[in-house]
Amino acid sequence: MCGIAGVWRKRNPIAGGDLDDVGRMMQALAHRGPDDHATWNDSRLALGHRRLSIIDLSAQAREPMLTACGQGVLVYNGEVYNYRALRAILEAEGRRFRTVSDAEVVLEALHQWGPDKAIPLFDGMFSLAYFDMRAGALWLARDRLGIKPMSVAEASERILFASEDKAILACDDVARAIDAREITLRLAWQSRDSSSSLFEGMERLPPAGLWKITDAGIEKRCFWHVLDVLDAGRITGDTASDAERMATLEALIQDSVGLHCIADTRLAAACSGGVDSGLVTTLAKRFRPEMTAYVVDPRLGHSEAEDAARTARHAGVPLNRVPVDKDRFLELWPRTIWHLESDGWHASHVCLLALAEQCRADGIKVLLTGEGADELFGGYDWQEASMRPWRPWSWPQRLFRSKARLARRFERLRHAPFRTSVAGGHGWDRNIVLRALSPELNFLQTKIFDRLEPVASLSDRAFLGCCLHDMYAHLQDLLNRHDRLSMAASVELRVPFLENRLIDFAIHLPRRHKYRHKQGKWLLKKVAEKHIPLQNVNARKNGFQVSNTFTTGTEGLLRGGLLRDAMKWPAASVEDLIELAKRDQPSRLRLVGMELFLRLHAGGQTTGDLTEALHAAVRDAR
Length: 622
Prior knowledge:
By secondary structure, this protein is of the alpha+beta class.
């Protein structure tokens, strides 16, 4: 929806330099809000807002927005989809509204109820800054799964915050230093992009982050976490029939899609041809009969376009194919890295930017997608694979194994319970990972597994736990990608599966409703059978694939590059890594992507320069 920025002064009053920095930040965020911009300040705080107008297009809904009493001010990025229900409650309490925007409802809820009460009630995607002048407190908050971003940098005299790192880096006296440890963690395939920056001194609010800033400093906490809300008893006590669960899920999805279709602008769906996006596309048609759909159609290798066309015909939705060939890919790759502020670890990142740019060129401001369903409902093969190491405890296999041996094996596996657990084969290797990589992610695996202790089947515990952990790992990278690359083209991407009630429903489903008869997303697919072609429902999950030839040869960019210096690799190792990148596309995307990041953000090269360098590397490799 928007881009937000601000400067909080710890002691001295806001000065001209602070206001200039807010202006620089807003310029750096122009792509997030091309429709309008405005600023506000008092003696301690300066705020800026770039607006992408979607709900209530009037000037009265612009931000920064103040309460009628002038004691509360808000800048806000995203959408709170249940704003009409919250507005009705506030009106019953005597509040009066000047607009029909969700932003004013968010502001009034924060001001009347306080952030601690109001924010958990918000059902949507958001990052916000709310200043309560009565208490002299600035609140920064992010939605429960981190769909919308927020970056923060603290200096000796002030605190800077914005929707993206690059906005803070545009401020005076902010160093553009790269954190080599963060490079290492990303190369080790740790999910870092949502909550951690590649720039030193830069923080990102975690999912559900709720930070209170006062004269006493920053109080950091979270208002929601799956460990706090998970009730394993609901899973073990689930006696509902398949028909009952199907009816509940269908109603929840329909309601969520309806809420996500609220917009005073044109809306479309990203329809890949899979179950999740196909179901969203078909249901959205009921609420927005004029809507269209989009699919990326690579000119080489596998394309989802025919599967998407089948769903679109079934739903009666016009489908727009977005072509991407090698030249277009190499043109967009550096721009993708610029907006991601990371290495762009998958080829689909570039294709998402191509799709978003086509949407914007066609006048589309809102795009629906199916992200989140695989994490919530068990759609990934690694979730199923997490059950296999635990089968020795199943009946009757456990009868043929020593209890003492099973106990020792349990303790080892408990610390690496999932297929995604790095170095899970040996305790020594696992401890290396826990010490050296991302402890907040890797220790979380055991905490989730233990939290599911009432689930008797250990393989079920592992499957369900892996799904829950993916919400804080794989899904975080996807959501960061979606926000950065859709907003790069001034398009808001919405995720109907990540609605509060759907999240609660999904995390409390037993394994039998997620994985059955060797089929993931079993319950969701049963619902989908009523709405999309069976051929698409029953198709094997492939994920988005782009031909290896799109990036073949680009590994030559690593010679004489900045990544070698940042990682202090000897020259001989660089050649070994180039050989690795040559034979393994994921490694190529990671390594070359990180080289592009460094050349853009540390080397001062332009995206155009790097597109030419990529073409040159490809020519040299022939």
